[in-house]
Automatic annotation (TrEMBL):
Pfam family membership, one: Polysacc_synt_3
Location in or out of the cell: Cell membrane
GO cellular component: plasma membrane
Predominant location category: membrane
Keyword line: Cell membrane, Membrane, Transmembrane, Transmembrane helix
Similarity section: Belongs to the polysaccharide synthase family.
Lipid bilayer topology: Multi-pass membrane protein
Record-linked InterPro entries: Poly_Biosynth_Transport
Transmembrane regions: 44-65, 85-109, 129-149, 161-181, 187-207, 219-240, 246-267, 307-332, 338-358, 370-391, 429-449
Name this protein carries in UniProt: O-antigen/teichoic acid export membrane protein
Length: 450
């Protein structure tokens, strides 16, 4: 494939992904601003734990089916796709069963008073919310592999529009039920509706072979072989990514965790945008350059996408670390004011997020074990720091552990980049002034409007 064609399709995919991300995050933030006035903070704290459990269980069984379809030479083989789809369905039912079991254990623990009094885990609504939220695993398990093919073939316009339609449907349900009931179930039902719309669209709107049950041994062998490192990476990665919620929920009330959820929501707007952009653009572009055996094109793509990520995330890191309290004061009422100081600390995590582009390069080159090692380091750092900091200084100290626990992975990034021939010390240093630019912009905003 000529490099100009790949560049054009990657740029088109990137433009669609960026437009969709802006629209998606605008809807997400707008919906949250309205729901924050319709619901009490406790409901956001309970929903954060339910969502965390869903994510943890999903990634505990993640073998990278979508990434494999994008990367594999058999990625358009119907036997390969149908085997992946069948495996995905089985996984969905297993996840639902595990969720219901955990919900029952949570209810039993509440009845026996085994949980810290006043913590989020002791909230009466938690077991029921957990059980119903688990239905999303069954629904998403039936999602067609046509979506993965769309990523592989740079059809990000369809993916973006499909996600926006699903999000809009869920948002509409959430706002109507929230206004009508003022209940946490407005959040739960909206999530299920969004997943259902996504699954229906994957079959009815996307182009590709229709899925049917299949169990091809050769395809299964490839899926498992590629996915074993993805699975290890996902297990430790989700414990690293969600560990803050797991630990803090035992120390914070549902209302306090709900305020923390607001800070995480705003930080997540940046994180989600970058991660989705990397998965939708960087991985397909890198994978195609690898399949075409074009190392020069691969290097050029990597350098350009790294530069974009560095600029956006270093600036955002500096800006939010200063201006976060002002932003929270503008957007939310006084019940959520503490989220501003939380966000100012958490913003420093964006310094390391920029290396998500390097992680997509590892996957494209078939080095998924590097990603597993990266997540293992983050897991070890977070799960050793948080208990210690909670014991020494409480949640205030623990926030710094959440923000800075990714720093040890910088050594792995440097080592892996040198090993693959993609590391340049000068290039790593020359982008750092963008952090100062972000700090200056934050200070200016705080001075003028704070």
């Amino acid at each position: 494939m000529p490099s100009s064609s790949l560049r054009g399709r990657a740029m088109s995919a990137g433009a669609w992904s960026l437009a969709a991300l802006i629209a998606s995050q605008a809807m997400r933030l707008g919906g949250n601003l309205i729901m924050a006035r319709l619901l009490v903070p406790e409901m956001f704290g309970i929903m954060m734990i339910a969502t965390t459990l869903s994510v943890v269980l999903a990634l505990f069984s993640d073998i990278g089916l979508r990434q494999n379809i994008i990367q594999s030479k058999r990625g358009q083989d119907p036997l390969f796709l149908d085997t992946a789809w069948t495996l995905q369905i089985v996984r969905g039912f297993v996840l639902f069963a595990l969720t219901v079991l955990i919900a029952a254990l949570a209810w039993l623990a509440q009845q026996r008073q085994w949980l810290p009094a006043g913590s989020t885990y002791a909230a009466d609504e938690l077991p029921g919310v957990l059980a119903v939220t688990g239905l999303s695993a069954v629904i998403s398990g039936f999602q067609s592999t046509k979506v993965a093919l769309a990523f592989r073939n740079f059809q990000q316009s369809k993916v973006a529009l499909g996600e926006l339609v699903a999000q809009s449907g869920g948002l509409l349900v959430m706002l109507l039920l929230g206004w009508w009931t003022g209940s946490i179930w407005s959040l739960v039902v909206a999530g299920l509706v969004s997943v259902l719309i996504t699954t229906l669209l994957s079959h009815l709107w996307f182009v590709g072979p229709a899925n049917r049950p299949c169990w091809d041994r050769q395809a299964l062998s490839e899926l498992v072989s590629f996915g074993r490192w993805i699975l290890l990476s996902s297990v430790v990665g989700v414990l690293a990514a969600q560990g803050d919620r797991i630990w803090l929920a035992g120390s914070l009330s549902a209302a306090e965790l709900g305020i923390y959820a607001i800070a995480i929501l705003l930080l997540g707007a940046v994180e989600t945008a970058v991660q989705k952009f990397a998965a939708a653009v960087a991985l397909p572009a890198f994978s195609e350059a690898v399949r075409a055996d074009n190392p020069l094109r691969l290097r050029h793509l990597y350098q350009r996408l790294r530069l974009l990520a560095d600029f956006v995330l270093l600036f955002s890191c500096g800006f939010l670390s200063v201006a976060a309290p002002v932003l929270i004061g503008w957007l939310y009422d006084e019940r959520y004011s503490q989220a501003g100081q939380m966000l100012a600390v958490l913003a420093w995590s964006l310094f390391m997020l920029r290396y998500v582009v390097a992680q997509q390069l590892w996957l494209a080159l078939g080095r998924s074990k590097y990603l597993a090692l990266d997540n293992l380091l983050r897991f070890a750092a977070l799960w050793s720091l948080l208990p210690l900091l909670l014991a020494l200084g409480g949640p205030e100290w623990a926030l710094w552990g959440v923000a800075l626990h990714k720093l040890p992975t910088l050594l792995l990034v440097i080592w892996a980049s040198r090993r693959l021939g993609f590391f340049s010390p000068g290039r790593e240093l020359v982008v750092l002034p963008v952090l100062l630019l972000g700090l200056a912009a934050g200070w200016l905003m705080d001075y003028l409007l704070g």
